[in-house]
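Recall that a protein's primary structure is simply its ordered list of amino acids. Everything else, from secondary elements to tertiary packing, is in principle encoded there. The following example makes that idea concrete.
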Amino acid sequence: MMKVLNRIKRTYQSDEIRQRFLDGKFGIEKENLRVDAGGNLSLIPHPDVLGDKNDHPYITTDFSESQVEMITPPMNSVHEALGMLETIHDIVSENIGDELLWPQSLPPNLPEEEKIPIASYGEKGRAKEIYRELLAEVYGRERQLISGIHFNFSFPDQMLGQLMRLLAPNQDFELFREEVYLRMVRNFMRYRWLLVWLMGESPVAHDGFKVKSLKTGEQYPIRCRNGMSIRTSPGGYRNREALYPDYSSVKAWKQSVQFFIDEGKLSDEKELYMPIRLKFEADSTRISHLEVRIIDLDPFEKIGVREENLHFVHLFLLFCLFVDEADTFRAEQQKLVNSNQDIVSCHGLCETVSLITFEGDAVQPRVWAGSLLEEMEQIFSSFGFLEHPRYHKAMKLVRQLVEDTEMHPAQRLLREIDEQGFIEFHMRKAKDYKALSLAKGFCFYGFEDMELSTQMLLKEAVRRGIDFEILDRKENFVRLTKDGRNEYVMQATRTSLDNYSSVLMMENKLVTKKVLKEYEIRVPGGGHYTKAEEALLDFLLFENRPIVVKPKSTNFGIGITILKENNDYSVFKRAVEIAFEQDDSILIEGFEEGREFRFFVINDDVVGILHRVPANVKGDGVCTITELVQQKNQDPLRGKGYRTPLEKIALGEAEEMFLKSQNLDFNSIPGKDEVVYLRENSNISTGGDSIDYTDEIHPSYKKIAVRAAQALDVKITGLDMMIPDIKIPAAEDNYAIIEMNFNPAIHIHCFPYLGKNRKLNQKILDALGF
């Protein structure tokens, strides 16, 4: 097997296989303690709003009721896995009230040991509680609160099969696959000290933190100033005694672990605390993935881990596959490499400390790290891995750490703690990170290319523990699954609740008007045209009257022109041309006076109402309109392409023309508090502001909106209604429905410019039965 794998480096340079080596499935598990405003461990139970921790696929608890565990599913890249983790992290932060997520692996202020709450799982999870009670008895509750990052990785079987066919076509695939993973594990164990030396971020503990001695049972304080990582030291996660499994095969490994259990050294296979674990498919001895367990939480990162570090861990795993094995990995060598890890964990910041190589030579960690990185770069360069920007950046970062140890995160952390205090520094970070989570609560990281409404629906699905699958990313088509039920959703609001004919009616503005009129619901009067010449011939019918010219079947305000006076034929002609550019038939309607409101209806219930104000700026008497627009566009809620709740205000032809009609231009300076509008239409997609009016509008208009939805037999719709005075009850002549939408955006109701979050993502999932 070794010769076969070594051939990869020497003989096989085809892009076909080289590029596939970076493929894989990547997952992350992260633990954080919940703390109160004073930096004390929370004694409040795991919030019910985060779902049932017994079967939630993304959010549960680890040892303690106060220890949140966040789990990503296997993703196609490190970047996507980190995006998923950040989304889960934000969901937790948003739903723990005034509490914060402690950003350090080592615990905050702790109560007396017996007051540390063991995770409770109810009757159906009683076995989990019994196991945790055993851990508390053996290791102490304080030690079990030490938290960290687990990084999961597996190769695609297709890639391993391709590799085997090229290099060892006569070998049994399962044996080939097993040896690939075992070789990676053995070499990971040998060189794992490097990850601790590069990424250790728990060099010092809170003064009051004590752990139970695994030999005497006495509590003792943790004191360390020269170490990289208390978490990976003998004071961190360790078994009661050193154990040396047999890594020669899966069968041998299983047998050795069972021996430890039979001897009473372990209660269960999962109690084997190793820096890397073999994980198996359910009820099988087939390896599913590798679990790297040696990564501390990074207090300098909101989600506890830096993307470059995980890309380096991925490269390190590949290095462990390619590098020659120093010797058989028996107990004697395992003792040596365990000692190297302990030296780095406890004394890695000391320049004079030495590690022992496999040949028995003493070498400083920095020197050995430099030679290992050179070897990695040689291997990775031959495969082209470092041509990938993210992996190139990861290698550059670790190179800098080797060259300048003052940049090491443990050194930075010690400086910050010395200046601010252990609790104070971490609490400041925790507060900053929570503020970041709340500021961008609309975002699903890693899926920012999808429509914002879809992102928000998926984020709520994650909170509820609903599995999701992206079926067509470009079309925002997803499948939601829970308890054996599947629902298919496109663009957040196209669901199984609505029938096809209803969708087609809403898509066609002419049909919508005719059906609503039959139900005695007021709509604008006007004409329908299939040829531009016919529309132009009717100019005299609409001359000197306010009108709207629009395509029959478009959304987002595309192709719509509002002519308040309509006394210029050339302008009318251009408006008709613009509408026909978007559709093969158009509508010319009378302009309805009043303000436009978007009513969102779900299952005959108005769940949100917005007034959309056209793109505008408020003057300060100093800045030009251009400068005011630039300032307003700095709002984090504003972006481009429907990826944020509000769109940036443009400074284009349409805005220039509208300003010109007001005798203004981009260089004009509005007076203090003077509001200047840059558009006539109020679409959010063109930079408008969304203002929630759900509780302000007279209920009679809500009844009309529900009647309109019933008229078209739709369960989800966003209808636009013109209302002159929202306090006066609806009558035959004081409102008009100008449009009904079959895929209305939900994000504008969840994150309005002004007003209350109406949480439509929750209401849609409720309507779907989740």
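The mean pLDDT is 92. Residues 173-191 form the longest helix (19 residues).
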